[in-house]
Specification:
The complex is a heterodimer. By secondary structure, chain A is an alpha+beta fold. Chain A has a single domain, classed as FAD/NAD(P)-binding domain. Helices cover about 25% and strands about 20% of the residues of chain A. Chain A has 14 helices and 20 strands. In chain A, helix 6 crosses helix 14 and helix 7 crosses helix 13. The longest helix of chain A is centred in the last third of the chain and has 21 residues. Chain B has one domain. Helices cover about 55% and strands about 0% of the residues of chain B. Chain B is mainly α. The longest helix of chain B is centred in the middle third of the chain and has 22 residues. Chain B contains seven helices and no strands. In chain B, helix 3 crosses helix 6. The chains are: A alpha+beta, B mainly alpha. Chains A and B meet through helix 3, helix 4, helix 11 and helix 12 of A and helix 4, helix 6 and helix 7 of B.
């Protein structure tokens, strides 16, 4: 066989069947909001970068608003028969074990290039300065492991600003009591087009004396040279974006900048000596074991899977798992606490014009309230949170399914159900609210390896232990009461709220805290492992507390910050 | 024996509910189809479970790898249990009963946790057949979308996500 005249040395070696070992500058495990900014920054700076991603690479033209495929059968997540979690919930003083396969309980958020950022709604809020100093600002809470962050808001602010441009954040800055300090006066992209119903909301808030502001969104309101603007599909959250307007890590970073990604690569082991990772071992799409070597490894597989990978990468130097000689990996897992609520607006209570305004599809609602990000009650200061308002999702199947119960909670079927669907579904629209407050870190909420269950590769699955703090519900209920008042003032009917300690699977953080003390944290302030000198973790695992906002903007910003630190040592 | 039939046997017998002598797969599918039309009867606008291919869709769902064992078990065991109840209460199969008696049985099981769950799951898959994208051979001529005045999101799928 003649040697090829063109192509890379690797390609030639591959064709000749010769294993060739290349040492990359950086190997990144996971291509979501945590991994991609590092890949982007370092590739742009000229370093050799490879990203290992378990999922496939889809492009805009592959996506559709197929409710059955995307939302009912969840085709962008692994089948639970193959990959799953074991969930252990503290109930009456002991953990009850739930097998995710049996209970349809999943913590997957989209295993594709770009990860969960493909499916987010893109509600973008920054953390507030006091989120970085929760312990100092509000004191200790019994039973909760609240600590200050090892960095301040000022350290992250330049990267929040960078995300606004790089990922694309649209909106309009409106002053309010808890508006965080900004280095620029406004967002780089103007607000998305809004529903006329926001006028009803604004009037209600003003009558109540409540401060509101337009919700910033990681969705382009105008095209850039590489991405199209939003086309107001009316089906945004949960669906990958068909125009590239949504600021997913794929659309904003990997795709336009041609970052090399090895897809369908499941990393199951990090091989190390006492100080450094030598190789990342993965199964390729044919199930063959392969390895990548690099000077630096960045793990960003999402908090649960990142902890699982470290805990499973045991050797004689790290008998409890990689970087876990102080027993901190997997500890202090957090979620976003809070819940949801809604109110209904009906044709029968509105003028023809008002009803037309209500039902206009595609336009965003985009309203938030942070007036109670901190509040006082009975002389005590509380850390509160954020209330986002949004129209209910346009998916038709859940909207019809909701009608199977009448107001008395009676299960309906047959003609009675059909009449109810006809009466309600085309003639009403629901306005929802979502509460985000701190899920206090506790000793009882953590990730471990399950001792029995294994996935399709024979690798032990993550066991998630849940023991939320009752304080979370107290704060959530306080905020929900205010949200309900707004809906009442707007004239909504059937107002409900549901604050619970159920963990939202798309808002997970912690498990590999950063901090100033190696005994109580996994990572140093630059998100480098205290114990493994060439390991960085850049997904939401690093967060010791989560703030009272969705995490994605902070993950992006921190990942850019860590990329700058990695550049210093390469 | 196809996969749905094997799964039916595993789940139904595994639960100790059904003996081999009692089992008749095709009849069970017929019972499922009849239950579908009892839960969602034909409407004057032409919508019924036959035009949306709800029976074939459910048979497909019961084989689908992304539908959980829990959901499949609820359907399979529900059919078995409602048959047992029909025999016990009326001495006949569900299909042999007059419409009023079938409705009485549904009202009876709706008062039980398993029956409530069974009806919910059955309705959920009927609504998938009624309101999913017609590319799957369901929701014929988008009749379900027209009925609910639903405007689907664009782009619509150009091909089914599974066979």
């Amino acid at each position: 066989m003649d040697p090829p005249r063109t192509g890379t040395a690797e390609a030639f070696a591959s064709r000749m069947g010769v294993a060739m070992k290349r040492v990359y500058d950086v190997c990144i495990i996971g291509s979501g909001a945590g991994g991609s900014p590092v890949a982007y920054e370092l590739a742009k700076a000229g370093y050799s970068v490879v990203v290992l991603e378990k999922g496939k690479w889809y492009k805009e033209e592959d996506f559709s608003k197929d409710e059955l495929a995307v939302c009912r059968r969840e085709i962008y997540s692994p089948p639970l028969s193959e990959e799953f979690h074991i969930i252990n919930v503290m109930e009456n003083g002991s953990y009850t074990r739930y097998d995710g396969r049996e209970y349809d309980w999943s913590f997957w958020n989209g295993c594709v290039v770009g990860g969960a950022s493909n499916f987010m709604s893109g509600y973008f809020h920054r953390l507030k300065p006091k989120d970085f100093a929760l312990r100092s600002s509000y004191g200790a809470i019994a039973g909760a492991n609240v600590v200050d962050w090892p960095i301040a808001y000022e350290d992250l602010e330049p990267y929040y600003t960078k995300v606004e441009h790089l990922i694309g954040v649209s909106g309009r800055v409106k002053k309010h009591s808890f508006l965080e300090p900004r280095s620029t006066p406004n967002f780089p992209y103007p607000p998305l087009a809004e529903s006329g119903v926001t006028g009803w909301f604004d009037a209600a808030c003003e009558a109540l004396g409540y401060e509101y502001f337009p919700t910033p969104r990681a969705i382009l309101s105008r095209s850039t040279h590489k991405r199209s603007s939003c086309y107001y599909s009316n089906f945004c959250g949960s669906y990958p974006c068909s125009s590239g307007a949504k600021g997913s890590a794929r659309a904003a970073l990997l795709q336009p900048h041609r970052i090399p990604v090895v897809t369908e690569a499941f990393v199951y082991h990090l091989e190390s000596d006492a100080k450094r990772i030598k190789a990342a071992w993965y199964y390729d799409k044919e199930g063959k074991e392969r390895q990548v070597t690099a000077k630096i490894f960045v793990v960003a597989a999402g908090p649960i899977e990142t902890c699982r990978l470290l805990l499973g990468s045991k050797n004689r130097h790290f008998p409890q798992g990689l970087s876990n000689n102080h027993g901190q990996v997997g500890k202090n897992l957090i979620f976003s606490a809070g819940g949801t609520g809604s109110g209904v607006f009906r044709k029968s209570r509105l003028s023809q014009e008002e009803f037309a305004t209500l039902m206009e599809p595609g336009l965003f609602f985009n309203r938030s309230i942070q007036q109670w990000y901190m509040y006082e009650k009975n002389g005590k200061r509380y850390k509160g949170g954020t209330i986002d308002f949004l129209f209910e999702h346009a998916n038709i199947i859940p909207r019809v399914m909701r009608q199977i119960w009448d107001e008395e909670g009676r299960l309906l079927w047959g003609e009675e159900l059909q009449r109810r669907i006809e009466e309600h579904v085309p003639n009403e629209r629901r306005l929802n609210f979502e509460i985000f407050n701190d899920w206090l870190p506790t000793d009882g909420t953590f990730v471990a390896l399950d001792t029995q269950a294994k996935d399709k590769w024979g690798v032990p699955v993550a066991a998630i232990y849940l023991d939320p703090h009752p304080h979370d519900l107290e704060v959530g209920n306080f905020l929900a009461k205010r949200a309900v008042q707004v809906l009442q003032k707007m004239g909504a009917e059937e107002i409900t709220s549901d604050i619970s300690s159920a963990p939202p699977p798309n808002l997970v953080a912690g498990g590999c805290r950063f901090g100033k003390d190696p005994k109580t944290s996994v990572l140093n302030p630059h998100c480098r492992s205290w114990e493994v000198e060439n390991l960085y973790i850049t997904d939401a695992s690093f967060m010791p507390t989560g703030g009272s906002v969705p995490y994605t903007w902070s993950i992006y910003a921190n990942s850019l910050r860590v990329a700058a630190a990695i550049k210093e040592v390469l | 024996m196809d996969r749905s039939k094997r799964l039916f046997l595993k789940l139904a017998f595994g639960a100790g509910i059904l003996s081999l002598q009692q089992f008749a797969w095709e009849k069970s599918l017929d019972t499922i189809a009849l239950l579908q039309s009892d839960l969602f009867p034909a409407m004057p606008n032409g919508i019924d479970v036959h035009t949306i291919h709800a029976r074939a869709y459910l048979a497909h769902i019961l084989r689908h790898p992304r539908v959980s064992l829990r959901q499949k078990r609820i359907i399979y065991q529900g059919v078995v249990q409602i048959e047992q109840l029909a025999r016990k209460r009326y001495g006949a199969t569900y299909a042999e009963l007059a419409a009023k008696k079938r409705q009485a049985l549904l009202a009876q099981i709706a008062q039980t946790p398993w029956g409530e769950e069974f009806i919910q799951e059955m309705l959920g898959f009927i609504f998938e057949a009624l309101l999913g994208d017609p590319i799957y051979g369901i929701n014929k001529d988008a009749i379900g979308w027209k009925w609910t005045r639903h405007v689907p999101g664009l782009p619509r799928p150009s091909h089914p996500a599974w066979e």
